Amino acid sequence: MRVVVQRVSRATVEVDGQIVGSIDRGLVCLVGVTHDDTTAEARALSAKVAGLRLFGDGQGRMNRSVMDVDGSVLVVSQFTLYGDVRRGRRPSFTDAADASHAEPLVEAFRAGLEAARVPVVSGVFGAMMAVSLVNDGPVTLVVEASHGRVV
Hints:
By secondary structure, this protein is α+β, with helices and mostly antiparallel strands. 20% of the residues lie in helices and 40% in strands. Helix 1 packs parallel to helix 2.
């Protein structure tokens, strides 16, 4: 499971021209799922993201989590995070899990954030989405879980 985490000052996600999710200060999490990912990995990733110290303290150092700053998280499913471009110019998505496996794990990631008392909004799984954000910093990280370990 792979999550691209971006610190934002605001973000929205639209489906069919309608805003389905919006946050102010917080994190945008683009979530990709591969075939052997598990619910335990989704929960471990959500705990890791909730506790990441990506926000400034009084001295401007990144010492505060999204929970510490009363921020929110926008979760967007993104199967293209498992796109493989090693051969040719057209990405292969064979490493991306199918919807029946991926959707429950994206939901488990979201539920894990909510369990940590982080306000969460999300896009619509499988929909064509327009994500708008103001990247704060910019601060962008890739967090992964593989075989039960968050790396």
